[in-house]
Design goal:
It is built from seven helices and seven strands. The chain is of the alpha/beta class and 183 residues long. The strands form two sheets. Strands 2-3-1-4-7 form a five-stranded parallel beta sheet, sandwiched between helices.
Length: 183
């Protein structure tokens, strides 16, 4: 899904950033992206690169030599000039928030960058964070829902329980009555 979306972005002569939650996932993603788009179109940014490697990738990006940047949280700052899309895989993960100075939330940075570039921010998650879910519910974000999985495995049944209502009914537990019964 992400690669198709990024491919559409590239067809419009725009650039894309693909953010992943952990550096350990970067290798798998890079291999898949290279298989589809070719290595010359992709730059990689993450903290495990040496300073020299990071500088070289940064300069390739800044020069316009690449169309796709793949990396962890800090890749959201990649100096692309014509960003059409930023994809955040597993957007609910806490790793997208920096607790070191400078402190930042990569989701909020990505949102601001896409507003400035008139691009699309694609937040992917089977379990979206509360802010994203609220924004989708309020119409601030457009919610796109997959109706089936890529590998045709059935989607699990999901039920949302309003814990405020549980509290009003006297349940002071962190677990809803419905979950307790199911367990």
């Amino acid at each position: 899904v992400y690669m198709r979306a990024i491919d559409k972005c590239l067809q419009q002569h725009r650039q894309a950033i693909m953010l992943v939650t952990e550096i350990s996932l970067t290798k798998q993603i890079i291999d898949r992206f290279i298989g589809r788009f070719g290595s010359e179109r992709i730059a990689v940014l993450h903290s495990k690169l040496s300073l020299g490697e990071r500088y070289d990738e940064w300069m390739r990006i800044q020069s316009g030599a690449v169309e796709i940047v793949i990396g962890a949280r800090s890749a959201v700052f990649a100096p692309l000039k014509n960003i059409g899309m930023i994809v955040m895989d597993e957007e609910h993960e806490a790793t997208y928030k920096s607790d070191m100075t400078p402190k930042y939330d990569a989701t909020e940075v990505a949102l601001k960058r896409m507003q400035a570039h008139k691009g699309v921010l694609l937040l992917g998650s089977a379990t979206p964070n509360v802010t994203s879910y609220y924004r989708a519910k309020e119409g601030i974000y457009q919610k796109l829902q997959l109706t089936h999985r890529y590998n045709k495995v059935p989607l699990p049944m999901v039920e949302t329980i309003d814990m405020r209502e549980e509290l009003r009914q006297g349940n002071k537990s962190m677990i809803s009555r419905r979950l307790y019964e199911a367990i």
